[in-house]
Amino acid sequence: MRIDVLTLFPSMFEGVFGASILGKARDKGIVSLNTVNFRDFANNKHNTVDDYPFGGGGGMVLKAEPIFGAVESLTEGSEEVPRVILMCPQGETFTQRKAEELSAERHLIFVCGHYEGYDERIREFLITDELSIGDYVLTGGELPAMAVIDSVVRLLPGVLGNEQSAVTDSFSTGLLEYPQYTRPAQFRDWSIPDVLLSGHHEHIAKWRREQSLLRTLKRRPDLLEHAELTAKEREWLKRQQESSDRS
């Protein structure tokens, strides 16, 4: 996979792209991670990439020319059509399902702005996706882009040491992940559930599924509306909810 990021602050990505899972994925050649300073594509002597909005109003608006120029330089001579992603508070809320969708692409281009807004022609004629990581405003699109890129890259084959890790992560199954424990089995006055020491894989799988359902019910019940559950599981959840309401 190839990932390019259009930003005015390329240095923000140096540590992130070189460390942890992203750094290992790049070293293995699984992903190409690049930054482009779109100020280099400004078409004026002062290299300005923003201007006052037509019609008045506060703040500055990101100009269309530098963004179009930067994207076109990255796609020139290529037959592949990349997904061009605008990080924006107005965008679709980023989810694990979106991460899985994007991980199937070969080329992603992220656009990170730092001003009041974008010239609307960028949205209309260049962008394929608008993404938001939550209902709040940040200084620019760099931090959200980092979060999305990390989420996408870890899904690529060969990135994680244990491929099953990505499958069982919270949200990948539509539910929150079950509780995890490691050695020692007894820590201070707290011991782990006996079933995890039983060696009975079927019982362990059943316990984990139930714990995942319970945790989702307590912390993110909204996820259950779209989760793929059996009729038996829905009935079990109903009993758990009724029991909780009575206590």
From TrEMBL:
Domain of life, per lineage: Bacteria
Coiled-coil positions: none
Example of a GO MF term: tRNA (guanine(37)-N1)-methyltransferase activity
EC class of the enzyme, as a word: transferase
Keyword tags: Cytoplasm, Methyltransferase, S-adenosyl-L-methionine, Transferase, tRNA processing
GO CC annotation: cytosol
InterPro entries assigned: Alpha/beta_knot_MTases, tRNA_m1G_MeTrfase_C_sf, tRNA_m1G_MeTrfase_TrmD, tRNA_m1G_MTases_N, tRNA_MeTrfase_TRMD/TRM10
CDD domains: TrmD-like
Chain positions recorded as S-adenosyl-L-methionine binding sites: 113, 133-138
HAMAP family for the chain: TrmD (MF_00605)
Family, similarity comment: Belongs to the RNA methyltransferase TrmD family.
Subunit structure: Homodimer.
Protein name as annotated: tRNA (guanine-N(1)-)-methyltransferase
UniProt gene name: trmD
